[in-house]
Design goal:
This protein has 2 domains: 11-199, no CATH class; 219-255. Helices cover 43% and strands 10% of the residues. It has helices at 36-46, 51-62, 99-111, 113-120, 129-132, 154-169, 172-177, 182-190, 194-199, 225-233, 239-255; strands at residues 66-72, 75-80, 88-94, 140-144. Helix 1 packs antiparallel against helix 6 and helix 3 packs across helix 8 (182-190). Keywords: Metal-binding, Zinc, Zinc-finger.
């Protein structure tokens, strides 16, 4: 039998209390998430969330209603000021990677030598995305001390949006959330087995990204033609030799492609 009870109405609890010095989102309007991994996190969070609660969550995040935010292994905890005297405590939880998943992560990073440097430098390599990012909305759990039993409520939604911004800016936070330390990952990558080290001592089997296709442009095309001719003229007898020297330069640069 379908439950036809009306949705709870919380207007009687009053308006949210303003906060001084709250953790206001950098995003002032539009969508959250500027990187590919940030946008994917937002899509996962919004996929099954109630549109009204998600909208209010964005408003709470942008107006600085989140008083504190802490990302730990498997959980993000935030204090969010609502209409009550004391802030509500909202959490966003996700399972930490197990030993098998961490081993798989280490193997992927070992196969892609540049991915660890890329991660430490502030970007999530797409090859690591399926392991580091939630597999879907069901991988996230929300909780809050407020009376709303929405999934998520606006307070937890605000915490989730600010979390995406933190991970957007510093992807190492996703490692923390999934229970992986960067030092642990570096140690795992550098500690491979003796058999692996001997078999591919020089990294001959490493898969490197393809070089980008670029249009050929000889260096002489970027030089001031008058200055180039003047320089060559100093060692040539006449203008025909100057023209021949410039043609030779172009030929040489064609061979250097």
């Amino acid at each position: 039998m379908t439950d036809r009870r009306p949705a709870p109405h919380f207007a009687r609890y009053g308006s949210r209390r303003p906060v001084q010095g709250g953790l206001a989102a950098r995003s002032r309007r539009g969508a959250f998430g500027h990187t590919w991994w940030g946008r994917e996190l937002v899509d996962i969070i919004e996929f099954v969330g109630d549109k009204g609660r998600m909208s209010r969550g964005r408003s709470y995040a942008r107006s600085g209603q989140v008083v504190s935010l802490e990302i730990r292994h498997g959980m993000v905890t935030g204090e969010v000021q609502g209409s009550q005297l004391q802030p509500f405590v909202a959490t966003v939880s996700i399972d930490r990677l197990d030993e098998g998943e961490i081993a798989e992560l280490v193997t992927l990073v070992r196969k892609q030598p540049g991915s660890l440097a890329m991660l430490a430098g502030g970007a999530v390599p797409e090859i690591l995305g399926p392991l580091l990012l939630p597999s879907g909305s069901s991988a996230l759990q929300y909780d809050c001390t407020c009376p709303d039993d929405g999934w998520p409520c606006k307070h937890a939604a605000a915490v989730a949006y600010l979390t995406t911004e933190r991970i957007d800016e510093n992807p190492l936070e996703i490692l923390t959330l999934r229970g992986v330390d960067l030092d642990m990952l570096i140690e795992g990558v550098g500690g491979g087995t003796a058999e692996e080290d001997v078999a591919d001592w020089f990294g001959d089997s490493a898969q490197l990204p393809a070089l980008p296709d670029t249009d050929f442009r000889a260096a002489v095309d970027d030089l001031d033609p008058l200055l180039l001719r003047k320089a060559i003229r100093s060692v040539c007898a006449d203008e025909r030799e100057v023209d021949a020297a410039i043609a030779d330069l172009n030929t040489l640069y064609q061979h250097l492609r």
